[in-house]
Amino acid sequence: MNRSNVHLLDLPDEILLIILKKLNNIDVLYSLLDVNNGRLDILAQENTFTNILKFVSIDDNPLLDRFSNYILPRIHHNVKCFILDPILMERTLLAIDYPNLTELKIFHFHEGTVLNYFTDKSSLRPIFQEQITNLILVNNDQDGMISSLKTYTTNVYSHILIFFKNLKNLSIIQPSVLTYYPGLSLCDLPSTTFSSSILTHLYINVKTFDDCVYLLDGRLRKLTTLYVNVYAIDKSSGIVQNTN
After folding, report:
1. What's the structural domain count of the chain?
2. Domain for residue 37, yes or no?
3. What is the pLDDT tens value at each position of the chain, 244 positions in all?
4. Structure pTM?
5. Within-domain flag for 16
6. Residue 113, in any domain of the structure
7. Under a CB-based contact definition with an 8 Å cutoff, are residues 186 and 155 in contact?
8. In a domain, 96, yes or no
9. Residues of 91-123 as b/e, b for ≥16 C-beta within 10 angstroms?
10. I want to staple 103 with a disulfide (CB 3.0 to 4.6 A). Which of 67, 134, 177, 194 is the partner?
C-alpha cells in the first residue's frame, strides 16, 4: 500500500473513535457536525461526545451561536450533564429542552449566582427544580471576605436545598487547595436550616466539628454519604442532640 494515499477517513470507526476521544468533545462537535460527511456526523453524535458538555471560560460568540442554534438542538436528547460558567447558563440551558439532563456543575459560583438564578423568577427555575438531582458548585466566595457565616449558610447553602426540590447529590468544592470558601455554620440556627428529606450524598466544608455533628442530627434523613472538611476542630460544645 502506498502510505501517502492513506487518509484519516480510511481508518475504521473504532480507530477514529480512539483518536477523537483524545480531543475536547466541544471541538469534536463544533468541527465534525454538518461537514457534509455522514460518517463523521454519526461519530460526533456518540454518547462519548454528547453526554457531558463543558462550557467554561468561553467567550467565542461564533462557537456559542453555532452550539445554541444548531448543535444543541441536534444532540439535546443525549445531554446528561452541563459544566458551565453562571454567565452562560441561560444561553445554553434555554437553547432547547434536555429531557435527560440531571447533573449540573457550575464554575465560578458565588453568592450572586443564588440571587440571580436560584429564584422563583428565574427562567431557569423549571430546569433546576424539576430535573437537576446532582449539583456541583465550585465556590469562588472567599471565607475571609464574608461578614457572617450564619447569614451565608441561610442565604446560600440552606436556600439551595430548598430551591432544588429533587436534589439528591450536592458537592460544594473550592477552586484550589489554596483558597477556602465560607464553611457551613449551623450552630445557633434552627434545626430546619439546611435540611432535606431526599439528599443522599453531601460534600461540603464546615466551620467547626460541631457543625459536622449537626449534619447528622436527623435533618438529612436519607443521607448515606458525607464528605466534610472541618476548618476548626475545637472541643465540642456538647449541645448537639445527635440520635441518628
Report:
1. 1
2. no
3. 455 565 666 677 777 777 777 778 888 888 888 766 667 777 777 788 899 999 998 888 889 999 999 999 999 999 999 999 999 999 999 999 999 999 999 999 999 999 999 999 999 999 999 999 999 999 999 987 888 999 999 999 999 999 999 999 999 999 998 889 999 999 889 999 999 999 999 999 999 999 999 999 999 999 999 999 999 877 555 555 555 5
4. 0.88
5. no
6. yes
7. no
8. no
9. ebbebbebeebbbbbbbbbbbebbebbbeeebe
10. 134
